[in-house]
Amino acid sequence: MYIIPAIDILDGKVVRLTEGNYNQKTVYDVSIAEMIETYRSNGTEFIHIIDLNGAKGDFSNQASLFEVIKKTDMKVQYGGGIRTIKQVTDLLDAGIQRVIVGTQAITNPDFLQELSTEVGKKYDYANRIVIAIDVLDEVIKYSGWMESSPIKLMDYVDKCLQLGFFRFLCTDINKDGKLGGAAMDLYRKLLEHSPFIKLIASGGVSSMADIEELATLDIRSVVVGKAIYENRITIEEIKEWNLKQMTSL
């Protein structure tokens, strides 16, 4: 299980939200470029970048963000407001390793089928696309966590699997930004239901002890953000942990 450091961007600044609430944000006095370079210079292979403005349909961050991204040789897992097939293909063409889709996949019944067909013409879509599942009390949330879906969680996972998608980024909104521990029960349920999914955990990690607990499950990677910024987990600890991992991202 690899640790993937997170950078969330809002209004051009590095931030962390609590429970996805844009009014409960912590702004960090560090630039995007500085954070990326810190991770790169310490041997991090993958980085997770979310455009929080993009999640609400505002892409004012994107040009400057991509200027920074294209200067690094790190693999980037990117999300935030990806609503069209063209956006996905443009991002992959630009060198983004993995594109995260959420809202459109939930609200448009045909989107995932079209995505597999169109992206599959050029890319290994099953490995290059990550399905975001943002959950509040096992209810799927979307549009920056502001809307609720009537689709049951496990039914949605089954639908995605039937279309060939198996890489999921699951965030328990109750845990996000609180540094209170990861959603072990939720992840356990998902893996019991679908043992072969490639699950990426997100939300709540506060220490290396939480990382060790997550590693007892068959989770492929974990996104860590606030714990790094609050010095609960150091870059050196991430580097040491990742070097020991033998399974593929």
From TrEMBL:
GO terms for cellular component: cytoplasm. It holds the Pfam family His_biosynth. Pathway: Amino-acid biosynthesis; L-histidine biosynthesis; L-histidine from 5-phospho-alpha-D-ribose 1-diphosphate: step 4/9. Gene3D superfamilies: Aldolase class I. It comes from the Bacteria. Keywords: Amino-acid biosynthesis, Cytoplasm, Histidine biosynthesis, Isomerase. Its EC number is 5.3.1.16. The active site is at D8 (proton acceptor), D134 (proton donor). GO terms for molecular function: 1-(5-phosphoribosyl)-5-[(5-phosphoribosylamino)methylideneamino]imidazole-4-carboxamide isomerase activity. One of its GO terms (biological process) is L-tryptophan biosynthetic process. It catalyses: 1-(5-phospho-beta-D-ribosyl)-5-[(5-phospho-beta-D-ribosylamino)methylideneamino]imidazole-4-carboxamide = 5-[(5-phospho-1-deoxy-D-ribulos-1-ylimino)methylamino]-1-(5-phospho-beta-D-ribosyl)imidazole-4-carboxamide. Signal peptide: none annotated. It is an enzyme of class 5 (isomerase). It is found in: Cytoplasm. Belongs to the HisA/HisF family. This is 1-(5-phosphoribosyl)-5-[(5-phosphoribosylamino)methylideneamino] imidazole-4-carboxamide isomerase. It comes from Pedobacter nyackensis. The lineage of its organism: Bacteria, Pseudomonadati, Bacteroidota, Sphingobacteriia, Sphingobacteriales.
